[in-house]
Each structure stands twice: as structure tokens, then as C-alpha cells.
Amino acid sequence: MQQAAGTISWSETQAVRLRELGGDDWLEETFATAKERDQAFARHQKELAERGRQHLEQFRANIRRPLLCRIEDALVEALTQAGFVQVVTPTIISKDMLARMTIDESRALFSQVFWLDKNKCLRPMLAPGLYEISRDLLRLWKGPVRMFEIGSCFRKESQGATHLNEFTMLDMVEWNVAMDERQAHLKAFAELVMQAAGLADYQLETEDSTVYGDTVDVTYHGVEAASCAFGPHPLDDAWGIHTSWVGLGFGLERLAMLREGGHHVKSYSRSLTFLDGVRLNLS
Ligand code: ATP
Ligand code: MG
After folding, report:
1. What CATH number should be reported for the domain holding residue 23?
2. Is this model's pTM higher than 0.85 or not?
3. CA dist., res. 29 & res. 10, Å (int)
4. Residue 124 Cα, ligand 1 centroid: separation in angstroms?
């Protein structure tokens, strides 16, 4: 039921609850009286809770795996079909590996790193592991080498709708790509991933990254889904790598959120309070 607009908006607690239940579309509503507002809140909450319960029933009966995992499966399938090999490198990395990414005290990202002790941290990105393992593989394998990793990364973030402290990254790289094919391959790989994630309507935008210099971002309705970069690159030297490459890093929770038309990555992340997008404290 549509209420006549007024000057009274949701209380802080009501807005938080609407948001966590996925009722973002109603957040801008205003009311003539507090009573009307509270009645509307009760109605919305009931409807959203019912929607959540229904989804959990479907989840239990048919779906059975969270969207984050289903997207990961779809990406693994699409990437291996396209000749990418999967690697799994450690979540714990050394300070030296970060330094080789030029992430030291002078960089903002350095202050976002979770340290385990003075020399070890939780990886804020997958690139150091991929660089390290690639040095050996590029000695063994000739010609174009396509490789990817999917795994958790950790950054101290001030949270917000699109940032998590723990998120899942897909990092994919093609080594030994012909210089004049890098741009075309980047486009093809972005298309491969966005199609596999069910997101057709994306854009490529040129960006300036503090770590990689000029990069291309994949965005979807204004939200960054990935950052991509090209080599040879000044960072390569520190890893003993001397070849041309194209690399793309996607956030899987963002892909899940965008796929569902959601507004918060948290609902699709590793969580104790959400399952497959549904807030679990439903009555
Ligand atoms: P942003 O500018 O949105 O903070 P970023 O440019 O710092 O992101 P990158 O280092 O480019 O992030 O990481 C590659 C991808 O990983 C991003 O495009 C995004 O999809 C995802 N990502 C990065 N940080 C987070 C985070 N804290 N929570 C969820 N996803 C993230
Ligand atoms: Mg980026």
C-alpha cells in the first residue's frame, strides 16, 4: 500500500532493519505521521521476512549452495574450459612478498593489512602468490600460460556497502601474451567472467591504480567489479619475471551482489548472520 509522502522518515533502527532484510527500495519513503510510518515498517518487515523464509526453504530444498559458491563453480568451469589452470597459494604471506608488490609503509593499502606477527600477514591480494608460483611455472611451460586463483583476501576496511574485511578474489593472468593482443585478450577475459557470473551489462573504464599504474576497471552499474592491468610492468623485476601479460582481479561477493540486484556485499559474504543473501534473525 502506498502512503502519502510527508516529512517523517524511518528511524535509524528501522532503516538498519529494512536494509538487512533487503528492503532498500523502501528506504526513501516518507510519512505524514510517526504512526503511519510504524505501520508501514511493520508491513514491510513482515513481507521481507516472509520473502526471506521462502528463499531459505528453496535453498534447503533445491539450491543448497550459497550464490558465492555457485559463482565460484561457474567461474572455475568457464576458466578451465578456456585453458586457464587453477593454482592455490597460501593465505598467509610474508612482509617481503608485500614489499615486492611495493606495498610498504608509504602506501595506504599497507595500513589495511592484517598482521599475524612482524613478518607475516593475511594476504590483501592474490598477486604476490601468483607472481611467486609463476616464476617456476614459466621456466617449465613455454608459450602463453593461463592461470587463476580464487581465494580469500583480507583488508581492514571502513566497511560500507561494497567493502568487506574478508572477501573472495578471482585473480587471472595470461603470461607470454603477444603485446598487440593484450587489449583484446583483456576484453575477452572480462567477457568470459562477466558472462559466467550472469552479468551482461558491464563496462570497461580506464583507471589509475597506485600499485599498477594505468589499469582498466570492469564496472557494473557504477560499481567496480574488477581491476585489470598489463605487463611488462615495473613490478615484474622483483619476481624475476620478464614477459608480457594481462591480469584481471574480480571480487566474487560484488559479483554475487550485482547478480542479485542487492545493495550490500555483506549479505553474500562468508557470514554467521546471512545465508545466501538472507538475514537469519527472522522470527
Ligand atoms: P575499491 O576501489 O572498490 O576499494 P580496489 O580498487 O581497492 O577496490 P582491487 O585491489 O582492484 O580493489 O581488487 C580487485 C577487486 O576485488 C575489486 O574490483 C573488488 O571487486 C574486489 N574488492 C577489493 N576490495 C574489496 C573489499 N574490501 N571487499 C569486497 N571486495 C573487494
Ligand atoms: Mg581496483
Report:
1. 1.10.287.540
2. yes
3. 8
4. 10
